[in-house]
Write a structure and sequence with these properties.
By secondary structure, the chain is an alpha/beta fold. The relative contact order is 0.09. The termini are far apart. The protein has a five-stranded parallel beta sheet with strand order 2-3-4-1-5, sandwiched between helices. The chain has 15 helices and five strands. Helix 5 (122-133) links the parallel strand 3 (110-114) and strand 4 (139-145). It has helices spanning 8-19, 37-49, 63-70, 90-100, 122-133, 153-157, 169-179, 184-193, 198-204, 207-226, 233-236, 241-259, 272-281, 284-303, 309-326; strands at 26-31, 76-79, 110-114, 139-145, 160-164. Its EC number is 2.7.7.7. GO terms for molecular function: 3'-5' exonuclease activity; DNA binding; DNA-directed DNA polymerase activity.
């Protein structure tokens, strides 16, 4: 795995806790996508399993380290949903628990890594609870999560909570600059659109992805003067609709910031003319109402199984046109 400079301090802190005998057997690491939590937990796993630690570093040479580097250490268990499934059921949990209560095959620590604890079904989470409360000796559970509030309270209470915050904006911008992705304004925009997570920003800055966002912004800029919001449908109706609606809602939020004289805090620094256009055409109340409707739409698209995406988007866009019509702009679909 890669390593990133903003992980140095949290890694040293966590390893220091374990080295001093104060490390918890169940660590719940809360991080936004793109902050490097997987790399951090893997590095911690290597240190825990290493048989000849060199201070806060794993030696990289002992038999356990070689097995970890080869990806086949028998005492390192990675829990993830089966291919094609979106949740982790009870059977894999039962299987790993059974293995944990036998002796470690390498005579050292046993580590279980679950990158997204939210993927546990309720039955799987309950099956894990007793082991988290009374774990076998020298056994560590490293759990990652995006939304701790979505986990069972009983599961959270058995873990030591650690929040991996996004790095300082300037540090992230320097790192993105070294990757050669985008110009300074684009880098700042991508970073802010992802709550400061550098790896997620780098992905957004990839040419194809950045062009997709630009196409949505261009479609919105062309649709507003004509009040033809249905023209946005081709730019929104894709499998990654949740991301595209995030881009759209961020524009509406930025327009509200612009109205309040806070344009410097806007996320979309590369689209300030479009933000100004939205701010001049819609009142603050209208912007809030439209954004809330889009957030509700996004929630339905993410949570309702079998929802008709195109129909839902069409309904929302036509509703936006009607709102513009009520404020004095004529919609081509109402004529």
């Amino acid at each position: 795995m890669n390593w990133y400079p903003w992980l140095n301090a949290p890694y040293r802190h966590l390893v220091g806790q374990y080295a001093a005998g104060r490390g918890h057997h169940a660590l719940l690491l809360h991080a936004a996508v793109g902050n490097g939590d997987a790399e951090l937990l893997y590095a911690l796993s290597r240190w825990l399993i290493c048989q000849k630690r060199n201070g806060e570093k794993s030696c990289g040479e002992c038999h356990s380290c070689r097995l970890m580097l080869a990806g086949n250490h028998p005492d390192y268990h990675v829990l993830a949903p089966e291919k094609g499934k979106s949740s982790l059921g009870i059977e894999p949990i039962r299987q790993v628990i059974e293995v944990l209560y036998s002796h470690a095959q390498q005579g050292g620590a046993k580590v279980v890594w679950l990158s997204q604890a939210e993927l546990l079904t309720e039955a799987a989470a309950n099956a894990l609870l007793k082991t988290l409360e009374e774990p076998p000796a020298n056994t560590y559970f490293l759990l990652g999560c995006r939304e701790p509030s979505s986990l069972l309270a009983t599961l959270r209470s058995r873990c030591f909570y650690w929040h991996l915050a996004s790095p300082d904006e300037q540090l992230s911008l320097q790192w993105l600059n070294r990757q050669g992705a985008g110009n300074p304004v684009d880098r700042l925009t991508a970073l802010r659109l992802h709550d400061g997570a550098p790896l997620a920003a780098e992905q957004l800055l990839q040419p194809n992805r950045w062009q997709q966002r630009a196409a949505l912004c261009n479609a919105l800029s062309a649709a507003l003067p004509q009040c033809d919001m249905l023209a946005l449908l081709p730019a929104l109706n894709h499998d990654d609709v949740a991301d595209r609606l995030h881009w759209l809602c961020s524009m509406l939020m930025d327009a509200m910031k612009y109205q309040q004289g806070a344009a410097s805090y806007a996320l979309n620094q590369d689209q300030l003319p479009l933000v100004q256009q939205l701010a001049s055409r819609l009142s603050s109340v209208s912007l809030q109402q439209i954004m809330q409707q889009w957030l509700n739409c996004r929630h339905q698209l993410l949570s309702v199984v079998g929802v008709n995406r195109e129909l839902l988007l069409t309904e929302q866009l036509l509703g936006w046109e009607q709102m513009l019509g009520a404020t004095g702009y004529s919609s081509p679909h109402s004529l």
